[in-house]
Amino acid sequence: MTFRMHAVVGERGVDASLDVADGETVAVLGPNGAGKSTLFGLAAGLVRADGGRAELDGRVLFDTATGEWVPPHARGVALLAQEPLLFPHLSVLDNVAFGPRAAGAPRAAARAAAEHWLGEVDAAALADRRPAQLSGGQAQRVAVARALAAEPHLLLLDEPFAALDVAAAPALRRLLRRVLAGRTAVVITHEALDAHLLADRVVVLEGGRVAEEGPTAALLERPRSRFAAGLAGLNFVRGPATAEGSLFVAGLGEVFGLGPAGHDVPSSGDDAVAVFRPADVAVFRAGEEPHGSPRNSWRAVVRELEPRGPQIRVHAASPGTALVADLTPAAAAELDLAPGADVVLVVKAAAVSVYAG
């Protein structure tokens, strides 16, 4: 089942397209307010577009030019929200059977479908319980079964792990990885791990527009938007290319790195980006920087120190540019770092990837 949509919602600042191939899972990423939930509402029929058209497997869902509009229940689209939203007065089995029954299936067939999908999500033992008797992870499994029992042509998952505790999320990730295989689906997430595990392709929304899109691994390895770079845990700067493997960034000056092979090489003056890992950023107190002339050396001010497991993440600001570095607690203590401290950040050119933006 293929899905294609372009829609404009003026009040929400959305003007974006979303295409999903048959059997493909696409992850939609972006900061809060980027328009992700609006796209889902448009696809599910919960939001009306000011302009645009959507079709699912060749059937028009809406077309503002002709006035065509298919109501939500007739679209073949299932939306799995952050909260399970199970009917509290129904048993688990009857919750899952609701979709087939609403589509006109006989009671026995609906119950058989419900039993099948509860088995698929390892929740068959919960069939006789009420939603109030379920844990968060169990309820979300049942919600997945309910969505799949309706046999949707398109499955929308809106941050399916957001309401789960840390212990329950990994099991649901494994479950979704299995049941989404070969199914046409779109998932909203804020986690790079979810994109890697679940999605064939990623679409990044910023300000209601598509900032970039592409295969998951390639996009997170070579992001072209600040949000995707942050999701991948990379420092990100942008500016005009000055030569192969370098670019000029306001506030930093020339940034030197390694240019890529192939079509991603920017020509002089073209828009380019550079990315590098926080672990590759060396931090020195101002006046104590290393001897010699490292190619990438920038003065900055420490803004925040953030504990991250066995490391300390140093958030620093050079004029107009935010950068992060990862240090061991011992190194941070030896440098006597604190917010407001003047530092010098050094990155070897070999650790910086520069490519067309």
TrEMBL record:
Pfam families: ABC_tran (PF00005), TOBE (PF03459). SUPFAM superfamilies: MOP-like (SSF50331), P-loop containing nucleoside triphosphate hydrolases (SSF52540). It comes from the Bacteria. GO terms for molecular function: ATP binding. Keywords: ATP-binding, Molybdenum, Nucleotide-binding, Transport. InterPro entries: AAA+_ATPase, ABC_SmlMolc_Importer, ABC_transporter-like_ATP-bd, ABC_transporter-like_CS, Mo/tungstate-bd_C_term_dom, Mop_domain, P-loop_NTPase, Transp-assoc_OB_typ1. Residues 291-356 form the Mop domain. Residues 3-232 form the ABC transporter domain. PANTHER family: SPERMIDINE/PUTRESCINE IMPORT ATP-BINDING PROTEIN POTA, SPERMIDINE_PUTRESCINE IMPORT ATP-BINDING PROTEIN POTA. This is ATP-binding cassette domain-containing protein. It comes from Sinomonas terricola.
